[in-house]
Structure formats: structure tokens, C-alpha cells
Specification:
By secondary structure, this protein is mostly beta strands. Helices cover about 5% and strands about 50% of the residues. The protein has 1 helix and 19 strands. This is Fibronectin type-III domain-containing protein.
């Protein structure tokens, strides 16, 4: 009897020791520098067209490594670098808009966590900058969308400018890619526009941002299908 009790106690101990639960998931990092919607002027000159910029972020919980992603918004070409540190340096083009973000990883977990995405201009010889390309938010590209009772879908985006002088947004929307039909202008504080749709049709849309100096930027094209 005592022997059986000992066996059961050892078995219970082994089970409890082996049931530690899933490994903790990493948390998203808080970005520090370059600041959001800013002009980065602190890079180290590499040549006439490039500077080396050091990106910094706060340490996040349950994280072993970070992957820094920096996307050239003119070409949509990304640069990625992995590090165990909370900073990393990349050589990037002068006078160009970029988006950057950080992905947190834990070697014991399959989950990852993403930071916010911040936009900035890498300083060049310009005295005025084009607006950042509008970031299309809804509908997501490739989505299938249920129109409202008026058979309309609300297009939503976000926009920003280093000089803070956006004049207006122009929305292009059609069944052809790229869309060339202008369906409306909105002011700097209005970043949504309803459009009429027909069920079963695929639509393409983009937003061109214009500032008070006449500088423009293009969001690129998203598509969605109306139910």
C-alpha cells in the first residue's frame, strides 16, 4: 500500500513538472528613432546619395531577437536585419520616404509580435518634401467586402507630411488596374470616401496626396471584390 502511494506521488510530481504550459509569447517593441512622420537628419554620410541611419527601439518582454524592417516607399523595396540588440544600422537613400517597424521573436515560441509602423524622410538636399504616400487601410488589398445598404464601400486611408502642409487627397477608383478615374477630392483632415459598387465586381483604388507646394505622392494600388 505504501509502495503504491509512493509510486502515485512520484507520477503526480513528474506530471506537474512537465506541465509548464506554452512558452511566453513575445511582446511588440516600442519604436524610438527615427521619430514618426519626421525628417531624419542625424545619419552618417556614406556618399552623395546614401547615409547610414541607426534605428532604435525599446526592449520588449519575452524577446530573444528582433527583426528590423525598413521599406523604401518610392520603390517598395524592403531591407531587413536581425539582431539581439535594441538598435541596428542600415544604409539608406537620401531624400527618400521610408517606413520602418520591428518584429519581436522568442526562440521558444512560434508566435511573433510586431511594433507599430512609423514613416520618416531620410534627409537630403530638399528644402521641402513631398507628402508621405497615403497608407491604404480599408478595404485591405485582396479582401472581399460586403457593401452597405446603399451598395457603397467606405475607402479609408491615413496620410502625413513632414512639412504638415497637405492640401488634399485625390482618390482614383475603377475596375481597371491601375485605376485612372478620379472619384473625389478630400481635404487634409478627411481620409475616407464612400464609393458605389456592383456585387461580384473586382475594384482597384489608390490615393494621390498633394501638398501646398504642389508636391505629390502615390499610395500604390489596392484591390477588393464586392460581395
Amino acid at each position: 500500500m505504501i509502495r503504491n502511494i509512493i509510486r502515485l506521488s512520484i507520477l503526480a510530481l513528474l506530471v506537474s513538472c512537465g506541465d509548464d504550459g506554452p512558452p511566453p509569447a513575445p511582446q511588440g517593441a516600442l519604436l524610438v528613432f527615427p521619430e514618426e512622420n519626421s525628417e531624419c537628419t542625424t545619419g552618417t554620410d556614406i556618399n552623395q546619395t546614401s547615409t547610414q541611419v541607426t534605428f532604435r527601439w525599446m526592449a520588449s518582454d519575452n524577446t530573444d531577437t528582433y527583426t528590423l524592417s525598413v521599406v523604401n516607399l518610392d520603390s517598395n523595396v524592403p531591407q531587413n536585419i536581425s539582431t539581439a540588440s535594441t538598435s541596428a544600422s542600415l544604409t539608406i537613400t537620401k531624400g527618400t520616404p521610408f517606413a520602418w517597424s520591428v518584429t519581436s521573436r522568442n526562440s521558444e515560441s512560434d508566435q511573433v509580435a510586431s511594433s507599430e509602423t512609423w514613416l520618416f524622410y531620410n534627409a537630403g538636399s530638399q528644402t521641402t518634401y513631398a507628402p508621405f504616400p497615403a497608407q491604404l487601410e480599408n478595404p485591405q488589398s485582396g479582401a472581399t467586402v460586403q457593401p452597405d445598404i446603399a451598395n457603397e464601400v467606405l475607402l479609408e486611408w491615413s496620410g502625413a507630411d513632414v512639412d504638415n502642409d497637405i492640401a488634399y487627397f485625390e482618390v482614383f477608383f475603377s475596375e481597371t488596374n491601375p485605376p485612372t478615374t478620379s472619384v473625389g477630392l478630400t481635404n487634409a483632415s478627411t481620409m475616407e470616401l464612400p464609393v458605389g459598387v456592383v456585387s461580384g465586381t473586382v475594384y482597384y483604388w489608390r490615393v494621390v496626396t498633394t501638398d501646398l507646394e504642389g508636391n505629390t505622392s502615390d499610395s500604390g494600388v489596392f484591390d477588393f471584390k464586392a460581395l
